[in-house]
Write a structure and sequence with these properties.
185 residues, Arc Repressor Mutant, subunit A, mainly alpha, 2 domains
Length: 185
């Protein structure tokens, strides 16, 4: 890697961090649906064209920001996640529960569910399955909606569990591994 490419990588990383930080600050102060790309770029101190070099829209920023905490939870669908990784993801959500409470509402909730569906689809494909099989598609959608509902209840205090108990409950209800092995799929 050349100095120029390292510098470009550092600029990309810095710009993406500015966008994420601006986005997170805005979401804590305003409803997601009230935030525009213009608001994000103004808060981040970057140009609109710079934003669009990295993201298609604000929903893309939200989807990408949710992949980190959601990835180990979606992997629970397949029984392949070390407990420490699940606890780390749940701790991350718990520490940012004021933000999570906001993001599990309205349009952003649909994006959160779709992020889970996309992660589960990726997991099915990685295991040689076809996520477009109707019965598997229904399982993925149902379990993704259930995951967001459980997380929402947890971060708002309506589900009084510690992270370990929540991880066990999620695993018990989310496992798709048996569905992938089912001969009718």
């Amino acid at each position: 890697m050349t100095f120029a490419s390292r510098s470009a990588d550092a600029r990309v990383t810095r710009t993406q961090r500015q966008i994420f930080e601006a986005f997170a600050d805005l979401v804590q102060r305003r409803r997601y649906d009230e935030i525009s790309v213009g608001d994000i770029v103004a808060e981040a101190g970057i140009g609109r064209s710079t934003f669009y070099e990295h993201y298609r829209d604000k929903d893309a920023v939200l989807r990408l920001s949710l992949r980190f905490p959601f990835s180990p939870l979606a992997d629970l669908f397949f029984d392949e996640v070390p407990a420490a990784r699940v606890h780390m993801a749940l701790d991350h959500l718990w520490q940012r529960r004021s933000l999570a409470r906001i993001l599990f509402r309205e349009h952003s909730r649909a994006i959160a569910v779709q992020t889970f569906i996309d992660l589960a689809d990726d997991g099915v494909r990685a295991r040689g399955g076809d996520p477009d099989v109707a019965s598997l598609r229904a399982d993925i959608a149902f379990k993704s909606h259930g995951m967001i509902a459980a997380l929402d209840s947890w971060v708002t205090g309506r589900l009084a569990l510690n992270a370990e108990a929540l991880a066990e409950a999620v695993f018990n209800h989310a496992n798709l591994a048996l569905a992938l092995r089912s001969p009718e799929r």
